Amino acid sequence: xxxxxxxxxxxxxxxxxxxxxxxxxxxxxxNWEVEMSEEIETLKxxxxxxxxxxxxLAERLHxxxxxxxxxxxxxxxxxxxxxxxxxxxxxxxxxxxxxxxxAFSIIDDYQAALExxxxxxxxxxxxxxTEIVQAVPDNKLADNAQYWMGECYYxxxxxxxxxxxxxxxxxxxxTEKDDDxxxxxxxxxxxxxxxxxxLATFQKLVDDFPKSEYVAxxxxxxxxxxxx
Length: 228
Known about the structure:
Elements: H1 2-19, H2 23-89, H3 97-118, H4 122-135, H5 142-155, H6 159-168, H7 178-191, H8 195-208, H9 215-226
């Protein structure tokens, strides 16, 4: 656009030189200059409008992804509740009655903690999840409890603590919470204002968990963060 304005300026200079001795030409030049000024202003407004539309679309995409994240979080909560319920009714052949009773107690505690989390009673939920992780680190629910400890801190907007707890999920070799934890680590970096780390963590999720349900949404989020 700057080049166009330069050409226009040169043309105006030449015309002014010719018009200095021709009143009719000078009038035509004045009219032409007004028309060019109006056209330039129209182009400027069009460019600004296009930019505003793109920015609005990007913001709308971001809001949509945030909404999708909340929905996925609710679905994850339901899946964990169902998983705990299945464990509670599972057959424990070969186990002592006392062992079954202890296992059921852990499952009951875990379900109660999930209910506390769902009710935004984060401190109560955090206490119970912490007790489960410390008491039965090898239990099938330990990695889940560790993950939800991170979610509790995240819900309380304590993003640095949440980042620490989500990272601990990867200490469990057979965890199914690895891609969930990776996603929330990136979200923690976002909340802490560390955009580059968030982008790198999102990319790691795409690279390490290509079949994750989060990949498509994360790729869109990366475009938003990159300003594309």
